[in-house]
Amino acid sequence: MTTLPRRRRKPYGVAWYERLVERLQIIGTSAPVYLDQADAFLRMEIPTDPQEHALFERAQRICSELRSALMERERPTLVRGQRVWLAGHNPVSDGAGQFERQIEVLAAVPIPPPAIALHFREAGYKRRGHFFDMESLGYVVLAAWRHNLAARGVFNEDLYRPTSIWLTMTKMDDRGEGVEIAHEPPVSPAPATVAVDLLIANPPTQSARGRIIPELIGRTELSESPWLGLELAFGPEVDIGEFGFYGPIKPLIDAMSPLLGRDSGGGPADHRLHDLRIRSDGAPDGGVRVRFWYCKDGPRVGYQAVPDGFSSPTAMLE
Predict the structure, then answer these.
(1) Which residues, 6+ apart, have CB-to-CB distance to 1 below 8 Å?
(2) Which of 6, 26, 169, 292 is the most exposed place for a label (fewest CB within 10 A)?
(3) Closest by CA position to 164, among listed 88, 232, 224, 109
(4) What phi and psi, each to the nearest 5 degrees, are found at residue 290?
């Protein structure tokens, strides 16, 4: 099991094991992937504190009982073109409701497709008076499949590495707020709409305030319309599923303020991105092809209901 980079692991403590036991009892067999993650965590950690160890053994017993109760069943992924709709609030990274939303994702789509699309529907583009960025919404969903939710700062052994990612964000329709998860590779932007097309030879992989990308020196802000589309085409060696501070996506977007402009706090105005298309079939040798265009509010696409028999496992967690 691989730990996340540059993150110190803290002692788990009694409260952590109490919460694990509570979550296992509530979620039960409704999200088998979370049960897998809890099993993996319990194999990794053996506490020495007597109170922690008692809760540890209780969690082990619950996992064993759930395994016995869980009938062997298929865990299908989405076929190409298939999509499911998850209603409700879309939390940002480390925001309220993140864990509950991730359990809903695991229950609805246990095995993610190789070409993942996440189409977010929002009541508005500000929370508590401040813009939020779409990548943060995407991080929450992708981390459901990449991180062990029963542990802290740990990747799953079988790390999900999508071949493409497509994020969009639009105003909600009659379905209300939610996210549509689809097996859908991103289409390329129409050449006539592209406002910027360039190759960045050495894209950053760690966020740092004030970073300057040589290829963006002398570039001016894309200011003709408030919302932008962005395509990032990396080579196949790049893990495009990592949306954290150490990875190929966020550090690169954070360094694009010459094109994005700056927000009220002086950071990159990445809230302007409403259509983000990321591919791993593009520039080789560590580079990335970058294409910007102006977009109205992201494309609208059809959907279908979540799989038959699905019910949210998180209602009792709230």
Answers:
(1) 40, 44, 148, 151, 154, 155, 156, 157
(2) 6
(3) 232
(4) -120, 125
With a CB cutoff of 8 Å and minimum separation 6, the contacts of 246 are 5, 6, 205, 206, 207
Which own/partner contact pairs does 296-301 have at CB distance under 8 Å and 24+ positions apart?
Answer: 296/225, 296/227, 297/170, 297/171, 297/227, 298/119, 298/168, 298/169, 298/170, 298/227, 298/274, 299/168, 299/170, 299/275, 300/170, 300/173, 301/83, 301/119, 301/180, 301/182, 301/184
Beta bridge partners of 3: 154
All residues at 6 or more sequence positions from 266 whose CB lies less than 8 Å from its CB, including other chains = none
0.85 exceeded by pTM: no
Instruction: Give the dihedral sign, CA 178/194/80/244.
Output: negative
Please enumerate in sequence order all residues whose Cβ is within 8 A of that of 122, keeping only pairs 6 or more positions apart, or say none. 90, 169, 170, 171, 172, 177
pLDDT 10s per residue in the chain (318 long)? 454 444 445 678 999 999 999 999 999 888 889 999 999 999 887 888 899 999 999 999 999 888 877 754 556 789 999 999 999 999 999 999 999 999 999 999 999 999 999 999 999 999 989 999 999 999 999 999 999 999 888 888 889 999 999 999 999 999 999 999 999 999 999 999 999 999 999 999 998 888 889 999 999 999 999 999 999 999 999 999 999 999 999 999 999 999 999 998 888 999 999 999 999 988 768 899 999 999 976 444 444 444 444 455 555 455
What's the full length of the chain, in residues?
Answer: 318
Q: Can you tell me which residue has the tokens 């190409």?
A: 80
Q: Which domains occur in the chain, in start order? A: 13-69 (no CATH), 191-294 (3.30.1330)
